[in-house]
Amino acid sequence: xxxxxxxxxxxxxxxxxxxxxxxxxxxxxxxxxxxxxxxxxxxxxxxxxxxxxxxxxxxxxxxxxxxxxxxxxxxxxxxxxxxxxxxxxxxxxxxxxxxxxxxxxxxxxxxxxxxxxxxxxxxxxxxxxxxxxxxxxxxxxxxxxxxxxxxxxxxxxxxxx
Length: 161
What we know:
Distance between the termini: 11 Å
Helix content: 25-40%
Strand order of the largest sheet: 1-2
Strand content: 5-15%
Order of helices and strands: EHEHHEEHHH
Number of helices: 6
Number of strands: 4
């Protein structure tokens, strides 16, 4: 069951003007409050259950806003017309060297990655959310710190299982 969505779902519009992120607030409430969470031990379930809605909210926000909202494609819209400066190529965050490739005219995320593009995008957004949900500065935006309940790093992973 998904807790948020990005609209519109048209790559060209999202790439050029962005998207809106919606959180579906009633999703977590659609589950029975007494339903057993079988993948948790009884001890962990007692800890996690009261925090479930709060943690789910932060996870969905990190997934939708930062997971899907990041990773702008570097692309050449027409020959020698790019959405970046060809004379000062962006640096790869992995190699720390100038990039060597980008999307060519007519290519999109879906056309390059084909049948795995949607699954790959969801995994990327989940990975970003799981990484960022432990960032104390980011969680402070949501009002969480070392003195709140939940604390900044409590119980994020069960939301994705």
